[in-house]
Amino acid sequence: YGRFDIRARCPIGQGLWPAVWMLPTDTVYGIWPKSGEIDIMEYLGHKPHEILGTIHYGNNGWRFDSQYYTKPDSLPSFHDEFHVFSAIWNEQCIQFMVDGEFYGQPNTKSTVLPSAWPFDQDFHMILNIAVGGNLPGDPDATTQFPQTMEVDYVRVYQQRQ
User: Fold this and answer.
1) Dist. CA 76–CA 78, nearest whole Å
2) Which of 10, 20, 104, 136 is the least buried, fewest Cβ under 10 Å from its Cβ?
3) Active-site annotation, residues
4) What is the DSSP pairing of strand 16-24 with strand 123-131?
């Protein structure tokens, strides 16, 4: 449990799917999605003003809850500037933030019912860029390569006992 802050600047282009996410270190509750997944930030390269935070879970099939954050087009996009993507995670709740601002509804034990809450185990973090996939679609002729997701820092804080 704790607070996870990742300051990054995202790539831009059709078919690009950078993410900062977490998977369970051990699959205590079974294979994905039973043991959970926490997507601190997902971004689609063709939607430079939008990010989402998602939890994945489900003991009888795949369930997920996504929270969306959209910046006004008049403001710099997630490609134009660095932004801090955060998750606050405790025994009862996971909530997402961008640049210190909460967005979406808290994900709580009661919101995942009747599924079990698998977010009580050790997780590890992954930072990556996927190319293609069901969410962004394939790259097209407008997508330029190479691409990078620039990461300024990753900070993890634990609550004092």
Assistant:
1) 7
2) 104
3) 37, 42
4) antiparallel
